[in-house]
């Protein structure tokens, strides 16, 4: 669900018509057309537009061109082709964050966490940080996962992000150090989630003490 309203879809459709009429040999217009097709879930038409673009008006914006192709393939569930296109976008501009983030999210989605973390680490985008947190938990790095999740929670500006960050932080707190867990960070968006985290971390601390007693 792209969250597109009916009004937005109608605007996109009008934009598609304008591009189709006026931009047959304009690379920027054709790239825009391909991107709008993808936003409208018309993925094969997006790929056909990119093929036409490559033949008649090759784009100088290699990163945007490859991202457009990757996103269309992703819409068609062709994950191998999407991954290859994302890698070409990274090769064209290794310093740009969006291609690295896009590939990292795709790898994380397929549980290829070891490589995903290399692309998602240090990315301040909340979606990237949360995907990286899930991968860190999968890789047995709860302390790093805990730190990342609490950072996201402290800066969250919407309930969805805060909810997921809180849940991941509470999971990581079961094994993360220091002991006992740190208090939940300030998050003006979600006081309720801060209360939940306080309870989860108190439980985690109690479990640690119980385990330590049993080991003794």
Report on this structure.
It is a single chain. With 216 residues, this protein is mainly α. The chain has 11 helices and no strands. Helix 5 runs antiparallel to helix 6 (97-109) and helix 10 (159-173) packs parallel to helix 11 (191-215).
How are the secondary structure elements laid out?
Layout: H1 6-22, H2 27-39, H3 43-56, H4 62-75, H5 79-92, H6 97-109, H7 113-120, H8 126-138, H9 142-155, H10 159-173, H11 191-215
Helix pairs in contact: 1-2, 2-3, 2-4, 3-4, 4-5, 5-6, 6-7, 6-8, 7-8, 8-9, 8-10, 9-10, 10-11
Largest sheet: none
| Element pattern in H and E | HHHHHHHHHHH
Label the structural class: mainly alpha
Query: In DSSP terms, counting alpha (H) and pi (I) runs of 4 or more, how many helices?
Result: 11
Work out the oligomeric state of the chains in this entry.
single chain
Instruction: Give the total of beta strands.
Output: 0
Task: List the uncertain runs.
Answer: 1-5
Rg calculated over all Cα atoms: 22 Å
- Which strand-content bin applies to the residues? under 5%
Shape estimate: elongated
Helical content band: over 70%
Report how far the terminal alpha carbons are from each other: 53 Å
Q: Averaged pLDDT, please? A: 80
What key attributes describe this structure?
11 helices, 216 residues, mainly alpha
Could you give a quick summary of the protein structure above?
This protein has helices at 6-22, 27-39, 43-56, 62-75, 79-92, 97-109, 113-120, 126-138, 142-155, 159-173, 191-215. By secondary structure, it is mainly α. The model is unreliable at 1-5 (pLDDT under 50).
């Amino acid at each position: 669900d792209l969250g597109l309203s009916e009004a937005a879809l109608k605007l996109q459709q009008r934009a598609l018509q304008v591009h189709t009429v006026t931009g047959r040999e304009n690379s920027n217009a054709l790239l825009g057309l391909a991107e709008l097709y993808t936003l409208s879930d018309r993925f094969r038409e997006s790929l056909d537009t990119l093929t036409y673009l490559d033949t008649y008006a090759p784009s100088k914006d290699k990163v945007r061109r490859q991202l457009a192709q990757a996103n269309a393939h992703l819409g068609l569930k062709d994950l191998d082709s999407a991954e290859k296109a994302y890698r070409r976008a990274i090769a064209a501009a290794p310093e740009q964050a969006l291609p690295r983030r896009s590939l990292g999210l795709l790898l994380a989605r397929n549980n290829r966490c070891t490589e995903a973390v290399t692309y998602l680490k240090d990315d301040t985008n909340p979606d990237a940080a949360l995907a990286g947190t899930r991968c860190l938990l999968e890789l047995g790095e709860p302390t790093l996962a805990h730190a990342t999740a609490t950072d996201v929670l402290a800066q969250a500006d919407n309930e969805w992000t805060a909810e997921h960050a809180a849940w991941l932080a509470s999971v990581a707190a079961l094994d993360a150090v220091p002991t006992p867990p740190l208090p939940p960070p300030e998050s003006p968006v979600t006081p309720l989630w801060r209360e939940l985290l306080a309870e989860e971390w108190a439980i985690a601390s109690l479990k640690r003490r119980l385990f330590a007693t049993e080991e003794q």
